[in-house]
Amino acid sequence: MTSTQVNADNKRITTMHRWQQWIEAWYLAYGLLGAATAGMLPIFLPLTVSLSGGPAQVGLVMAAFSLGGLTAPLWGVMADHYRLHAGC
């Protein structure tokens, strides 16, 4: 939301509300992605695997999920070293 003000020279100035100065539109998508990855995925992943597999398969899937988080710094270093960033 914006508000319009008139300055001393009778020129219109459009200003954003205070909270919009600090919050970008993409924060919502980033927040939803974080909630899905950190909140819902660890709950639904074992439930989904348990429908077709046993406890060993659930353990393997959760170990692979956790291994991805543990190796994330390594992937970041490799992406920095080889300049393999998305959008570059």
Task: List strands and helices in order, with pairings.
Elements: E1 2-6, E2 12-16, H1 26-52, H2 55-70, H3 72-82
Antiparallel strand pairs: 1-2
Helix pairs in contact: 1-2
Write up this protein.
It is a single chain. The protein has helices at 26-52, 55-70, 72-82, and strands at 2-6, 12-16. The two termini are 32 Å apart. The protein has a two-stranded antiparallel ribbon. The longest helix is centred in the middle third of the chain and has 27 residues, at 26-52. It has one domain (2-82). By secondary structure, it is mainly alpha-helical. The chain contains 3 helices and 2 strands, in the order E-E-H-H-H. A hairpin with a 5-residue loop joins strand 1 and strand 2 (12-16). The radius of gyration is 23 Å and the shape is elongated.
Summarize the structure.
The chain has 88 residues and is mainly α. It contains three helices and two strands, in the order ββααα. Strands 1-2 form a two-stranded antiparallel sheet.
